TrEMBL record:
This is Uncharacterized protein. GO terms for molecular function: ATP binding; ATP-dependent protein folding chaperone. It is found in: Endoplasmic reticulum lumen. InterPro entries: ATPase_NBD, Heat_shock_70_CS, HSP70_peptide-bd_sf, Hsp_70_fam. Gene3D superfamilies: 3.30.30.30, 3.30.420.40, Actin, Chain A, domain 4, Substrate Binding Domain Of DNAk, Chain A, domain 1. Belongs to the heat shock protein 70 family. Keywords: ATP-binding, Nucleotide-binding. Its main location: endoplasmic reticulum.
Length: 592
């Protein structure tokens, strides 16, 4: 099948589009909700699932992007788990393991991994695409696609998206960063209409005139959606009548979005309710035991309150002043919840979120080697959360011209454009399949045997990226070597990627043989490793206090010419074998 779709996998809503010869067909947005009823085998999706969430909260799963690729010990996960009405828990005492979703309906219970939940949702998107985009083909056909994700998605999240898509019957041609997708759409749209998009879309201040050629721009993409913040500096340049999109830097936060604003308002209301009703603690709702008697009614109240908090947030974003009265009748034990939230209070509880956004912008500008915000030619603001008053003021104070894309289809159109290019359309309005040059989102480092970490691949390295690392055995006759691999973003928080286990090492003396470990990050931002016996004595091994890696942004730049013995590498966290994926794909197909 030569028709490839683009998917914008959003925390709040998801979208599907196709680009045929430069003409887009975009389907209506689909709420990222999935609900279970009856025997738990035939879920509801999208609007159907969202409309019944207040009556069926324990079996309605939403904000899928905040679930995927996460572990119990990951930053912010425990707090999020406390505010979701559905049950999301770790099935074992090992907090490195991925939690599961437990849904219960009429005495029935069933557990799903986050990958399985996303796979079911993607399978529904696939079904809709086959029906509504005039693609044709049987329901069991494998459909090619490009899926956009937040640029701050880590290895585990990207790998989980890929696994879920395979289980759903998709063949992913590319996992594309949302910021890159938006700029691709900008480049295509600008060329088609032959105009400055600031004249077509809303802008807050006049864009100052610059002595810069129209064929080169530094664009900052600020994407603040329901679940995450992604910021990128992308240089758009026209060279030999072909547009080039070069990502210079990116930053963001996978725990900063509209959901976090909703959570702040919700906790504010719970605290106010507890102040008035001394016999009630906010922990009654935030530490909800979903298996206790009355859990459903508590979860129903929490769902109704969340809806009111979202309404208040939207009202403040559109009006920018005044008070909002948040009311939920019979919230707890027939007691009504009534909370008046002033605009000043709203600004105060979201102030630190705006500060985090500014920090990400400043870091992005610094990493791109730009002098200051005045070096940015345009800002593309994406996501409903950019309408928050604090965010509006932040962008207006830092930059001169802000492009607001109409509606919310910029990302999915960019994904559909990339899908069309990868499917064989070499040029779409001066954009070629190789026009995008993306970069890594994280530093990749390994933990040394004598302590400390060594960075192998730096953040903002051009993709695909590779680094070789020479390590020696640390004991006599050693046949297995294990080491821990980490990611680190611009916020300097470490994320444990996995335990790499090198097996089948030929027995030898201390530090011999020497193993060449190769780390590769592909175009999707997914890390993999290989290892080979180097058959020579290195100057450095993993046990040395000051090892020197040999990084490269060009794949294969350090391929060894010596004959070697290939060692097997097992990566233990967040990985599915091809057999696992096929079994789950068939199981999910049967469930639909």
């Amino acid at each position: 099948m030569d028709q490839v779709i683009g998917i914008d996998l959003g925390t709040t809503d998801s979208r599907v589009a196709i680009c045929r010869n430069g003409v887009f067909q975009v389907l209506p947005s689909i709420p990222s909700f999935i609900a279970f009823r009856g025997d738990l085998s035939e879920p509801l999706f999208g609007d159907e699932a969202k409309l019944q969430v207040s009556m069926n909260p324990l079996c309605t799963v939403f904000q899928i992007n905040r679930l995927i690729g996460k572990r119990s010990l990951d930053f912010g996960v425990k707090q999020e788990m406390s505010l979701w009405p559905f049950r999301f828990y770790s099935p074992t005492l090992d907090e490195n393991e991925e939690p599961v979703v437990d849904v219960q309906y009429d005495g029935k219970s069933k557990t799903f991994s986050a990958v399985a939940i996303l796979s079911l949702f993607l399978r529904n998107l696939r079904k809709i695409a086959l029906q509504d985009l005039s693609i044709g083909g049987e329901q069991d056909v494998v459909l090619d696609c490009v899926i956009s994700v937040p640029s701050v998605f880590n290895d585990s999240q990207r790998r989980s998206v890929r696994n879920a898509a395979k289980q759903a019957g998709f063949n992913i041609l590319r996992i594309l960063n949302e910021t890159s997708a938006a700029v691709i759409h900008y480049g295509v749209r600008k060329g088609v209409e032959q105009l400055d998009l600031n004249k077509s879309y809303e802008h807050h201040q006049q864009v100052e005139k610059r002595q810069k050629m129209d064929d080169e721009e530094n664009i900052l993409v600020f994407d603040l959606g329901g679940g995450s913040l992604s910021v990128a500096i992308i240089r758009v340049k026209e060279d030999d009548n072909v547009k080039k999109f070069q990502v210079k830097s990116q930053a963001g936060d996978s725990h900063l979005g509209g959901k976090d604003v909703d959570d702040r308002i919700l906790l504010h209301c719970l605290n106010k309710f507890a102040e008035i009703n001394k016999d009630v603690s906010p922990r009654t709702f935030t530490n909800l035991d979903r298996q206790q008697d009355g859990a459903k009614y508590l979860a129903m109240s929490l769902s109704r309150l969340r809806f009111e908090c979202e309404r208040a947030k939207t009202a403040f974003s559109s009006r920018g002043h005044g008070d909002e009265i948040i009311q939920v009748s019979s919230f707890h034990n027939t007691k009504n919840l009534v909370c008046t939230l002033s605009f000043d209070e709203f600004q105060n509880i979201t102030k630190d979120l705006c500060t985090k956004c500014k920090m990400a912008i400043v870091q992005c500008i610094t990493d791109a080697n730009l002098k200051d915000p005045s070096s940015v030619d345009k800002v593309i603001a994406l996501g409903r959360s950019t309408e928050l008053p604090g965010i509006k003021n932040l962008l207006e104070s830092m930059f001169s011209g802000i492009i607001k894309f109409p509606g919310t289809n910029a990302v999915v159109r960019g994904a559909a454009t990339q899908a069309s290019l990868l499917s064989g359309q070499d040029v779409i309005n001066k954009v070629r399949r190789d026009s995008l040059m993306d970069v890594t989102s994280f530093d990749v480092s390994i933990e040394l045997h004598l302590g400390g970490k060594q960075t192998l691949i730096r953040r903002n390295t051009k993709l695909p990226a590779q680094a070789d690392y020479i390590l020696g055995t640390t004991s006599e006759q050693q046949v297995i070597s294990t080491f821990r691999v980490y990611e680190q973003g611009w916020d300097e928080l470490d994320n444990f990627v996995g335990l790499f286990k090198v097996e089948d090492i030929p027995p030898g003396t201390y530090r011999t043989p020497n193993i060449t470990a190769k780390f590769k990050i592909d175009q999707d931002g997914i890390l993999d490793g290989t290892a080979m016996d180097a058959h020579h004595t290195p100057d450095i091994c993993a046990g040395d206090p000051q090892p020197v890696p040999r990084p490269s942004s060009e794949p294969g730049a350090y391929n060894s010419t010596y004959p070697g013995y290939e060692c097997s590498v097992m990566i233990y966290k967040g990985r599915f074998s091809s057999d696992d994926i096929e079994v789950l794909r068939q199981r999910n197909g049967a469930a639909m």
